[in-house]
From TrEMBL:
Highest classification ranks of the organism: Eukaryota, Metazoa, Spiralia, Gnathifera, Rotifera
Top-level lineage group: Eukaryota
Organism listed in the record: Adineta steineri
Keywords, comma-separated and alphabetical: Signal
Protein name: Ig-like domain-containing protein
SMART domains for the chain: IG
Signal peptide region: 1-18
Entry-linked Pfam families: V-set
Family matches, as Gene3D superfamilies: Immunoglobulins (2.60.40.10)
GO cellular component: neuron projection membrane
Length: 138
């Protein structure tokens, strides 16, 4: 009896609400604009993660937090937390972080070979979601 009621209730909600898209359940909240970014040493790299402008959960006034992480695969070192929302967490004059209602970016000026690697932008949803950008330096 309960399951019949529950399924009927779900069908009513789904059919009466035209903006619900069952396929959006698995759609990521945050995505990398470009998953691979290649720059020449000495130039500027711009890493960008985007989110849907209609997703109010990630607006600047929301409680969701965004972070930029530099992934480290060496066993001795932990990942580096670079930025939280619009605040840099490390002192590197070459880094600029920006957050708007539609994107979250990390700019690295005067890129060098040591900057090459995988960067992730993460949003603190449950479970947390990450988007990855691989930076290649020539």
């Amino acid at each position: 009896m309960f399951w019949t009621f529950f399924i009927s209730f779900l069908l009513i909600i789904t059919t009466s609400s035209s903006h619900i898209d069952i396929n959006d359940e698995n759609k990521p909240i945050i995505e990398a604009l470009n998953t691979n970014v290649t720059v020449t040493s000495g130039h500027k790299a711009i890493l960008i993660c985007t989110f849907d402008s209609t997703n109010n959960d990630l607006s600047l006034s929301s409680s969701h937090q965004l972070i930029w992480i530099r992934q480290n695969y060496e066993s001795n070192n932990a990942d580096s937390l670079l930025a939280h929302n619009q605040d840099l967490l490390i002192s590197d004059y070459r880094l600029i972080v920006q957050r708007t209602d539609t994107f979250y970016s990390l700019t690295i000026t005067d890129v060098n070979i040591d900057d090459e690697g995988i960067y992730a932008c993460e949003v603190n949803t449950q479970p947390p979601q990450k988007a990855f950008v691989h930076l290649y330096v020539q």
